[in-house]
Design a protein that fits this description.
By secondary structure, the chain is mostly helical. The chain contains twelve helices and no strands. Helix 2 crosses helix 5 and helix 6 runs parallel beside helix 8. The model has no long low-confidence stretch (mean pLDDT about 90).
Length: about 270
């Protein structure tokens, strides 16, 4: 399920995204329920999506969570499209705005990637929001600004950095999607991973006894690599652990490539260690 941001009224969405911070509400005492605010509606919507995914999100579901009707929300948020933009930007406020000075760019890029992966797995519905059209919100821009600030320390040309931003996001989002899918597979299909692999492995060996001859390079790689285990000591299932290890190895190679580009660029790398 892919969802596109920015489908609501442009002016109303952007005005809500860039509205001034709301003042702190006074302590609640006895009396009638306090009025709704945009922030409380967005927080409730995020909770709905975190618990049930994007399919569970509706104005009615958000209203029920707040003890109100869906109609009561429209005074504050024009509709679901605008609400999605606000939700997406709001959760991005969880990402670090900066990293402590003193570390080299590679260390901070690794931290950024790990933090972003953890963020996406806290809110897997964010992965369903297409990157083809950005939300253009303040927290989304703050996250990008943080990443670009780290990349500028490599000394590489701005044109190269612009492409690296997209490459790094693809790396992290791809890993997050695989981990999220691995976590959901058993509940979505009604079958645990071990059972699924056991059934198909037996049939596969029977139907494709010459697999090694058909695919010699793949078979060689499997023979020469460490055999996978069903689950680790931490109880993480094999598919998720494999996705995380793939992410770590791929990120390391990607950072090696950036370091090589730094070494090739005249005068580059002077503001951060490779």
């Amino acid at each position: 399920m892919v969802v596109y941001a920015g489908q609501g009224d442009a002016r109303r969405s952007m005005s809500l995204l860039w509205r001034p911070p709301a003042p702190e509400p006074p302590p609640r005492g006895p009396g009638p329920r306090p009025a709704l605010t945009v922030d409380t509606i967005v927080a409730a919507a995020v909770a709905v999506a975190d618990e049930g995914g994007m399919a569970a999100l509706s104005m009615r579901a958000v209203g029920e969570r707040l003890g109100r009707t869906a109609m009561a929300l429209y005074t504050y948020v024009p509709g679901k499209s605008e609400l999605l933009d606000l939700m997406y930007d709001a959760v991005h406020a969880e990402l670090p705005a900066h990293y402590p000075e003193g570390a080299d760019w590679r260390t901070d890029l690794t931290r950024w990637a790990q933090d972003t992966l953890a963020f996406l797995l806290r809110h897997p519905w964010v992965l369903q929001v297409s990157q083809a059209r950005p939300v253009l919100g303040p927290h989304e821009y703050a996250g990008l600004d943080t990443l670009v600030g780290i990349l500028y320390r490599t000394g590489l040309d701005a044109g190269v950095l612009r492409r690296l931003v997209g490459t790094l996001f693809h790396c992290v989002r791809g890993a997050a999607q695989t981990v999220a899918d691995a976590r959901d597979a058993a509940s979505a299909t009604g079958r645990p991973d071990e059972e699924w692999w056991y059934d198909r492995s037996a049939v596969f060996v029977e139907l494709v006894p010459d697999f090694g001859d058909r695919y010699p390079e793949l078979s060689r790689m499997e023979r020469e690599s460490a055999p996978p285990e069903p689950s680790g000591d931490d109880g993480v299932p094999y598919p998720e652990r494999e996705a995380r290890e793939t992410f770590a190895a791929g990120l390391d190679v990607l950072l090696d490539g950036i370091a090589a580009a730094v070494r090739r660029a005249p005068g580059a790398g002077r503001t951060g260690a490779p």
